[in-house]
Design brief:
mainly alpha, about 75% helix
Length: about 280
């Protein structure tokens, strides 16, 4: 039960990132690039201070930073710049589809293939997510935006897999954020992500970086060693659904039968993949 609650809390934190990002960008309080840079900076500062207060050190020179910080940078850069030209729903489908394929592919190649039940659950959950998020009318995906989102998906999948071997979740996450900051900032500014921000935009970005990203990612690294990779991949399909429900509660967005039925498919697929059958 404790693992379930911690995993659920992590998914809520991930979804809160989407809500905070939308609040900042859609209201005009922040450009996507500026939001991403301040988000990473706030996460790096918060985690570094917490590790220092705990009497620890950031393992910046560890070989784990190659995968952890490198993958985090790839995710942040791809995610922030892709949405400049990509529909939000289609972008989420590309992101989570690539995360699923990458994690299932890597684990299968390393001798940890998912069970048929887990594969079936992942397919059902992703089908429900596609039903919810698929854009109405003709689908037009900007090639550059789609490529950037594919890279973001690969980055997040690698970041998740790397977390399974991180001995200290808080220190490792802090080191990842610190090492990823200059790479992320330089790449986003070079790609024209934009910087314009208001005080409200800064506040939302700091909240996202310090709490729902920094602490949320540290919590994710803490629970990952206790989750099978296939399950870790599948439960993340709940994030867009939680974000949509959060939009209904906090942004006064409308609910629909499509959302309700799609959510049932997502949750049912996750349950099929996660819940173990009891022996008779």
């Amino acid at each position: 039960m404790r693992l379930f609650l911690l995993t659920a809390l992590t998914m809520v934190a991930f979804a809160a990132n989407s809500i905070l990002n939308r609040l900042a960008v859609e209201s005009g309080a922040s450009e996507p690039g500026g939001f991403a840079v301040v988000r990473v900076l706030a996460g790096a500062v918060t985690l570094a201070v917490l590790v220092h207060l705990r009497g620890g050190r950031l393992p910046l020179l560890s070989v784990r930073r190659i995968a952890g910080a490198g993958a985090l940078s790839l995710y942040m850069i791809g995610f922030s710049t892709a949405y400049l030209t990509l529909d939000a729903g289609l972008g989420a489908l590309i992101l989570f589809g690539v995360v699923q394929i990458t994690m299932f592919g890597v684990t299968s190649a390393t001798g940890m293939p998912p069970m048929p039940r887990q594969m079936a659950g992942a397919v059902i959950a992703f089908g429900g997510l596609a039903y919810i998020l698929w854009p109405a009318g003709e689908v037009r995906a900007d090639p550059a935006g789609a490529v950037l989102m594919v890279l973001a998906g690969i980055g997040w999948a690698v970041y998740t897999l790397a977390g399974r071997t991180e001995p200290d979740a808080l220190a490792g996450t802090g080191a990842n954020f610190v090492a990823a900051l200059p790479v992320t900032a330089g790449a986003i500014l070079l790609l024209g992500g934009g910087w314009g921000m208001t005080p409200v935009g800064y506040g939302l970005a700091i909240l996202s970086g310090a709490v729902t990203s920094g602490l949320g990612y540290a919590l994710w690294y803490r629970v990952l060693p206790h989750l099978a990779p296939s399950i870790a991949a599948t439960v993340q399909l709940s994030v867009p659904v939680i974000a949509i429900l959060g939009g209904i509660l906090f942004l006064a967005e409308a609910a629909s039968w499509r959302l309700v039925s799609g959510t049932a498919l997502v949750l049912g697929g996750i349950a099929l993949a996660v819940v173990r059958r009891r022996a008779n």
